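=== Structure Prediction Worksheet ===
Name of assembly: unnamed complex
Input type: mixed (protein and possibly other molecules)
Chain count: two
Listed entries:
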Amino acid sequence: SAVISQKPSRDICQRGTSLTIQCQVDSQVTMMFWYRQQPGQSLTLIATANQGSEATYESGFVIDKFPISRPNLTFSTLTVSNMSPEDSSIYLCSVGGGDEKLFFGSGTQLSVL
Amino acid sequence: GNSVTQMEGPVTLSEEAFLTINCTYTATGYPSLFWYVQYPGEGLQLLLKATKADDKGSNKGFEATYRKETTSFHLEKGSVQVSDSAVYFCALGLGNTGKLIFGQGTTLQVKP
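=== Predicted Assembly ===
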């Protein structure tokens, strides 16, 4: 199994600012994903973080709003840009564990005032 | 398209009661099916999975059977414990993409 460290675990931010979330994995992984879990709702895939190339975004998510970096096989960042209260969610990093299994970080709980 | 629908919660049970959480799916092709659990204050963990029709996944006393004819993957446990209180997510896997599509989650509360 993979151990995923996500930072920060929570933050309260002002409208219009940006927050960068870091995800560190204890082993090299090919597949890394960012999910969003809005209050009382399910997880929605934001994008697949590709090492050495641009992230692949799902419908409804754009790079300008959620820029992603993946400089190597153990690390990725997700930035939530120009935040509004609607961005208040839990953001989760996950990695593929083979056999279609996913491992998840403990998440970043973001509140935007 | 692909989607997962779970029964709405919260589900409140007494200890040692029987648990069923319904999950149905819509998918093209033959997805793998999963149940993930999120205990309070923790990240999601894989509970069990099934990769083809009639497979039964099981773990920690929980079971779910992949039913292609009813497109269902209901989660069951014969006798729940207080420690089973958590949010349970049904999900389907889109093959080699590594992506999962999740249901909306069902909160289970078990009272002593």
